Amino acid sequence: MSRLGTLTGPFVLQGELHSPATLTVAELREGWEQHRADVVFDCATSGPQRHTFEGPLLREVVAAAGPAFDARRRKDRSRFVLTVTGEDGHHTVLSWAEIDPDFGNAPVLLATRMDGRGLDAEGSQLVVPSDRCGARYISAITRIWVGTCSAPARPTS
Known about the structure:
single chain, mainly beta, Sulfite Oxidase, Chain A, domain 2, 5-stranded mixed β-sheet, 4-stranded antiparallel β-sheet, 4 helices
């Protein structure tokens, strides 16, 4: 895990994308509109945690990398998933439909600031403001993978 004062490297954005990228916190701050989210995570071990996060929307950053789906076709978009991994190995999965404005429209952030403090040293953080607990909160993001979710095999008779 990184420590305050130790610069965490950039994260990779890869998978079924036309333009995979490597991004730093500074690039996220400068390249996209910054959104704000006031959150309260009800942590099982330490009680409610209140924070204010700022950063670009996950969907806007991934959309800029050109996901390999037909944006005009909702069913094509709805089969894509994203996995977000942190430096400590913690990871989570989101569906594209969850963050897509035509479906769930969740304002999931790639935080560049927390409580007014820049996250350049700690790395970008995934924030799902609608979550009651912080289990999908990922600190020090190292990788975001975007790809299709394969349909399960049909049972044979």
